[in-house]
Specification:
Blueprint (H helix, E strand, L loop, with lengths): L1 E4 L5 E4 L9 H12 L2 H17 L3 H27 L21 H8 L2 H4 L4 E2 L8 H14 L2 E7 H4 L2 H5 L1 H13 L22 E4 L2 E7 L2
Helix pairs in contact: 2-3, 3-6
Length: about 220
């Protein structure tokens, strides 16, 4: 508290100047809400204590905050893409027993798991008798593709073979793809509208009776 004398000679008092940390939590809460970075909002205080205890530089503290935000955002994106892919159940390539299918080339499966066939707009066809795990492989590759940042849609070949699809194949499939493209994405906000169809720009994995279409996130 400081005192001063008013022009009429009476003494007045002025409030003490606020320290730089006063109101900082509220300010950070507002800023992180505007920037839509909830992870930073939740952990900046805890990480600040850790940074002080470990003598981090400002740059190290900032990098740690951003790394947590990016990790959570990527995890949320993966979860949403897998949920909207319409998998009957989530199966992973890691859960597939390769010993039950010795004819499957491990190097080919490992290459497909990288998702490069999507970037190259290459289609994949899995052939074989029932019960050997084609559906598991399609879903597993779909999960890998979704984790790589691509939107994925699983559908049955019988549905695509429906007479209404034959009468208007492009409109029917485009309508299905547009539903997925318009879903909000946690990493980029509402999805932008974009034209396209399953074909050279949208590669597909085919395994009767399933089809899996993929396309890059835009």
């Amino acid at each position: 508290m400081s005192a001063s004398r008013s022009p009429n000679g009476s003494a007045t008092s002025a409030p003490a100047k606020a320290t730089s940390s006063d109101g900082l939590p509220a300010q950070l809460a507002y800023l992180t809400r505007v920037l839509k970075v909830p992870t930073i909002a939740a952990c900046w205080d805890q990480l600040a204590d850790q940074a002080r205890d470990s003598n981090w530089s400002h740059e190290e503290y900032l990098a740690a905050l951003l790394a947590r935000q990016v990790a959570d955002r990527e995890a949320a994106g993966n979860t949403m893409r897998i949920r909207t892919a319409q998998f009957p159940q989530v199966k992973t390539l890691e859960d597939f027993n390769l010993d039950h299918l010795p004819s499957l080339r491990r190097d080919v499966l490992a290459h497909l798991a990288t998702g490069t066939f999507v970037a190259k707009a290459e289609n994949v066809i899995l052939l074989g008798p029932p019960g050997i795990g084609k559906t598991h492989l399609v879903i597993g590759l779909g999960v890998k593709t979704a984790q790589a940042g691509y939107s994925v849609l699983l559908d049955t070949a019988s549905k695509l073979d429906h007479p209404t699809v034959h009468r208007a194949p492009e409109r029917q499939l485009e309508a299905e793809l547009e539903k997925i493209r318009r879903l909000p994405h946690p990493a980029r906000g509402p999805a932008r509208r974009s034209a396209g169809r399953c074909g050279p720009a949208h590669p597909a994995m085919v395994s009767p009776p399933l089809t899996l279409s993929t396309w890059p996130v835009t």
